[in-house]
Amino acid sequence: MKIDRALANAELNAIAAAGDMTPETVLDAARDENSALHGWFDWSDDAAAEKWRLQQARQLIKTVYVAITYADDTVVVVPAYVSEADDVDDETNTARHYVAVVEVMSDDQRRTALVVATIKRAMAILKNCPEALCQKLAGDLEKELAKL
User: Fold this and answer.
1) CA diameter of the chain
2) pTM of the predicted structure, to 2 decimals
3) From its phi and psi, is residue 73 left (phi > 0), alpha (psi between -120 and 50) or beta?
4) Alpha carbons 135 and 146: distance in angstroms, whole number
């Protein structure tokens, strides 16, 4: 997925300025081989179908939940399978493998790594929010992260 980000950004801005920024309008614009967006997409139907099925498999894995009961009888319901922080494909930013969350939580080092990775994801989401409260929460999480 090689694109010139500046040109792609300009094209996305033009689509948005036209008042109809949807995945469909972006895809339609990208169909033109001269579009700055064209290189972002996989135009091989076979390869694209396989990638979509892999995405569906990831979504399916994330639908399974498990209840964890702590010593103080607190119960939390969480995804049954998680990807560990060092097991993410750099190119696709997706998990390579999933492991049972109870397995990760039973190991101090792996549990801490999972907590740190989760806090970092939450911070990244909050930092994308223009609301001051979100920015404050991201800062608070960053302070808590430094304590770990």
Assistant:
1) 61
2) 0.71
3) left
4) 17
